[in-house]
Amino acid sequence: MADTLLKGGEYLIAETPCADVFTPEDFTDEQRQMGETTEQFIENEILPHIEEIDKQNFDIVVEGMRKAGELGLLMMDSPEEYGGLELDKASGMLVSEKIAYSGAFSVAFTAHTGIGTLPLIYYGTPEQKEKYLEKLTSGEWISAYCLTEPGSGSDALGAQATAVLSDDGSHYILNGTKQFITNGGFAELFTVFAKIDKEHFTAFLVERSFEGLIVGAEEKKLGIKGSSTTQIILDNCKVPVENLLGEKGKGHKIAFNVLNIGRFKLGACVTGAAKGALVDGIKYANERKQFNTPIAQFGAISEKIADLTAQIFASESLVYRIAGLLDEKLATIEKGIDNYYDEYLKGIEEYAPECGISKVFCSEVLAKTVDEVLQIHGGYGFVSDYPAERYYRDERINRIFEGTNEINRLLIPGMILRKSLKGELPLQAEAMKAFEALMTPSFDEIDDEIPFAREKALISNLKTLFLILAGAGVQKHMDKLANEQEILLTAADVAIQIYALESAVLRAEKNLGRVSEKKQELLKAAVKVFAFDATEIAGTAAKKGAFFIEEGDTLTMILSGVRRFAKYDATGLLEAKRLLARAACEEEKYIF
Predict the structure, then answer these.
(1) For 250-267, how does the pLDDT look when each residue is reduced to its tens digit (9 = 90+)?
(2) Per CATH, domain 145-245 is 2.40.110.10
(3) Which segments constitute the Acyl-CoA dehydrogenase/oxidase N-terminal domain (predicted)?
(4) Is residue 1 very low, low, confident or very high in pLDDT (cuts 50, 70, 90)?
(5) How far apart are CA 101 and CA 270, in angstroms?
(6) CA 178 to CA 589: how far, in whole Å?
(7) pLDDT at residue 154 greater than cutoff 90
(8) Topology alike, domains 10-142 and 423-587
(9) What is the CATH number of domain 251-405?
(10) Which one of 134, 254, 515, 517 is least enclosed by Cβ atoms within 10 Å?
(11) What pLDDT, in 10s, does the model give residues 490-509?
């Protein structure tokens, strides 16, 4: 348990001791066993049928979900009083990561266990849970989540679906169309959002058998072809009044709180997918010969493998750091209290910025991974005989799922700045200190005898840079900053890279004394390789932000700060990359 639990977004102004972060090396034997069980399930029950699943043989998907239910994989978040496991977030993320190896099946699984089931767990009445939860956690029924409409993507609350109470008061009559509904083709229970009397945004539990619910045709998609995606049409659909979920007019609470978890879970899933794709890329690079030499031995290929290894290390570090934060926060809530789930969801909402970071950063690491793995395969990566082609197609949706990456990038700094305006984070005071640092020369020397001293100094400097940009943006635009999307996007990129880099450094620092000398060198190499890339991305974003915000002498001053604070001595970078690539190719796996 951390001595002091940071608030959401507070990482930008506070230091975190490495002992306070949860890392994959901290898994218990029980957690590791759960991960292995999930891996064996995917290997034995799903992967042999993956081609059939991609041809939309949904019987295999449904049967796979039932087998997952038998193993207890669908009840991780379900309360113990309803036969569930009610596991910690770290365990849930590990299962999500392992499920990701299953391609399109993982989409059905995560939609069901996440946005499909969580609304019922968090907001359902005891009677609703008694009626539906066991069916969902056993895999007897599959669930789906109906929020998006043809005319409303990111503007979820702009939904046009309506609900009107019947004359006898026994049921609501729902009308409207829901778009892009995962599991739509075979789900039995839908969480549907509609506006009562065209005004009160509300959630309903709607069974497939209810009169007036029509399932549309399967969408013809670029990727995740083995998942079901349909419209759900509500044509005077009759829903009993007892199936209203939560409170009338409070559907937005359900939608947004469940999406926070969805974003976080997606981070774990795409990290698992990236690991699987990387391993295939490494194996192919070892097998494929050009000029009588395995292409893995060529620098152009080995550098790709090193870069991807370091990126995935950061992605994994970030996901489990957030899992640990959530678990510690949720552990402070007394389980027996009447409003337990209200407090539980407030605890998750506290870390909404970090959940958004997880979604954006990890999905973009997967994007880079599948692109490079296809490139490693050359022309063979472009044909469906090799899995690289499927990885490439399946990846693309992850930057759209759970709120586009652009929307999440706007939300991350927006939520942090709102916390500042509410007095929850002293960003204004810290921004003033940052401006003082900008105008004060620094003569601090770095002690290279201290592990990761250079990277820690870099993180501190990048935080100063973020505060300078945020302070300048607020000073110029005040409460209108929320409308300056281009500025917010640059601030988000700096904030994301800071969190990812700090997560990687803290994980490496925490585990340095626990591992062999060889593994110590690999940890140091991964941090160095990632720190170089993170600095380049954050520095470019900060420079762009400076040009967006200021001009004249103030711009010149901030640009000098960018040069000073986004600077990293990556001496030994080539050796670090070669070390990572060599180890990955020798072991033919993700090495952390």
Answers:
(1) 999 999 889 888 999 999
(2) yes
(3) 28-140
(4) low
(5) 9
(6) 41
(7) no
(8) no
(9) 1.20.140.10
(10) 517
(11) 999 999 999 999 999 999 99
CATH architecture of 10-142: Orthogonal Bundle (1.10)
Distance CA 412, CA 420 (A): 13
Half-sphere exposure of 361 (CA within 13 A, CB side): 35
Any idea which residues carry the catalytic annotation?
402
Cα Rg, the chain, nearest whole Å: 24
Q: Which of 278, 322, 368, 313 is nearest to 505 (CA)?
A: 313
Under 8 Å between Cβ of 197 and 182: no
Cα separation, 271 vs 321, whole angstroms: 14
Instruction: With CA atoms as reference, report the closest residue to 353 among 400, 405, 401, 416.
Output: 416
> To the nearest 5 percent, what fractions of the chain are helix, strand and coil?
65, 10, 25
Distance CA 337, CA 331 (A): 13
Would you kindly state where each structural domain of the chain is located, as residue ranges?
10-142, 145-245, 251-405, 423-587
Q: At what angle do helices 405-421 and 352-377 cross, to 10 degrees?
A: 150
Evaluate if residue 305 carries a pLDDT over 70.
yes
Mean pLDDT of the 36-54 span: 97
Given the structure tokens 């008694």, which residue do they identify? 130
Positive or negative, the CA dihedral 144, 149, 152, 157 is negative
**Dihedral, 83, 87, 93, 98 alpha carbons, nearest 10:** -50
- Tell me yes or no: is domain 423-587 CATH 1.20.140.10: yes
Residues 565 and 462: beta-carbon distance below 8 Å:
yes
CB 129 within 8 A of CB 159: no
Q: Tell which phi-psi region holds residue 450, choosing left (phi > 0), alpha (psi between -120 and 50) or beta.
A: beta
pLDDT digits (tens, 9 = 90+) for 520-536: 999 999 999 999 999 99
